[in-house]
Specification:
The chain is mainly α. It folds into two domains: about 10-95, Orthogonal Bundle (Rna Polymerase Sigma Factor, Chain: A), CATH 1.10.1740.10; about 105-185, Orthogonal Bundle (Arc Repressor Mutant, subunit A), CATH 1.10.10. Helices cover about 60% and strands about 0% of the residues. It has helices at about 10-20, 25-40, 50-65, 75-95, 120-130, 135-145, 150-155, 160-185. Helix 3 (about 50-65) packs across helix 4 (about 75-95), helix 6 (about 135-145) crosses helix 8 (about 160-185) and helix 7 packs across helix 8 (about 160-185). The two termini are about 20 Å apart.
Length: about 190
């Protein structure tokens, strides 16, 4: 996991303060969830700066929608969902003209030789960020966040077959990038074998 919060965080009190729009509570929530939120947004962003912008938008949405949070449910899951939706909204707003590959152009993708097992999470994230935005978005929504192709198609305004095709293309491109990345960084990285 890329993110760990202190177990001593008094989350119920902080959330109550946020519901009452107390700046101190909002600041505590921001500081406690900044890394978590930015790491979620990094999966959808071209750069750390763009991820931070997505996080800022998402955090404002969290503060504006905190009254809708059900305290009986895990806050982390609700927060993560808000961040993913914020990243998707950012994508729609700024990357509308991205090219999605239709299902007719789909081709078979072979299995990986477990490159992912030998890389650290930050190294994988660095490679995923090199995917074209359309591929990266579908890959992150499906593989990381667990959305189905019909859900992804609805969120992005594309056909379900296009979502499937982009996932296959993302996996193939990711394999190529991982092979190149690992061969280029073999000298500088740790030995994971």
């Amino acid at each position: 996991m890329l993110f760990r919060r202190s177990r001593s965080l008094a989350l119920p009190e902080i959330l109550d303060g946020c519901r009452h729009q107390k700046p101190a509570a909002q600041k505590q929530l921001f500081e406690a969830y900044y890394s978590f939120g930015v790491n979620i947004c990094l999966r959808y962003a071209d750069s750390r700066e763009e991820a931070e912008e997505m996080f800022d938008d998402g955090f404002l949405r969290v503060l504006n929608k905190i009254a809708y949070y059900d305290p009986e449910q895990p806050f982390d899951a609700w927060f993560r969902t808000v961040m993913v939706h914020s990243a998707i909204d950012h994508y729609r707003r700024y990357k509308v003209k991205q090219v999605f590959t239709d299902i007719d152009e789909l081709y078979d993708v072979g299995e990986s030789d477990n490159l992912l097992d030998r890389l650290a999470a930050d190294e994988i994230l660095a490679v995923v960020q090199q995917l074209p935005p359309a591929y990266r978005t579908v890959f992150s929504l499906y593989v990381v966040d667990g959305y189905s192709h019909p859900e992804i198609a609805q969120m992005l305004g594309i056909h379900e077959g296009t979502s499937r095709s982009n996932l296959a293309k993302a996996r193939q491109k990711l394999q190529e990038l991982l092979m190149t990345w690992t061969s280029n960084n073999a000298v500088n990285r740790r030995n994971y074998v």
